[in-house]
Design goal:
Rossmann fold; globular; alpha/beta
Length: 140
């Protein structure tokens, strides 16, 4: 009997926190990422929308070189899989977005929620309260 792989969806804030030494979650993010890197049974899943957001955020706050370095790391990563948001994911995200008028979820949040549901991922690596509000388990 083999081990079941642990899959974590990674949100923008988690990626960013691991790159900005002044971020309040810098240490937490890097400790968690190191734990995943060392594990033979963990995978990180994200979306092209999250990568877009993260590269833009890093570009604006840490500079172009830092954004390029992050982009290269993701493109070359053996532990991060990027799911491209397609029409099916967008349709599900739109339904979530329409339904939750009482929350300030971004549309990108909703695409992430849709992916996590479709892929049956249990845990989200994030520092964003929206994922907990929606009902996901967040780590670290």
């Amino acid at each position: 009997m083999g081990f079941k792989r642990l899959r974590y969806f990674v949100d923008t804030g988690a990626f960013y926190a691991g790159k900005d030494t002044s971020d309040q979650h810098y240490d937490q993010a890097n400790i968690f990422m190191e734990k995943v890197r060392k594990s033979a049974y963990s995978d990180l899943i994200t979306s092209n929308f999250i990568i877009d957001e993260t590269i833009t955020l890093i570009r604006m706050k840490l500079g172009h070189n830092a954004a390029v370095k992050f982009g290269r790391q993701i493109r070359e990563s053996s532990i991060v899989s990027v799911i491209n948001v397609n029409e099916n994911i967008e349709d599900k995200a739109w339904k979530i977005f329409e339904k939750y008028s009482d929350k300030d979820f971004s549309f990108t949040d909703c695409t992430s929620f849709a992916i996590v549901e479709i892929e049956k991922i249990r845990n989200v690596f994030t520092f964003d309260k929206h994922f907990a509000q929606y009902g996901f388990d967040i780590v670290p």
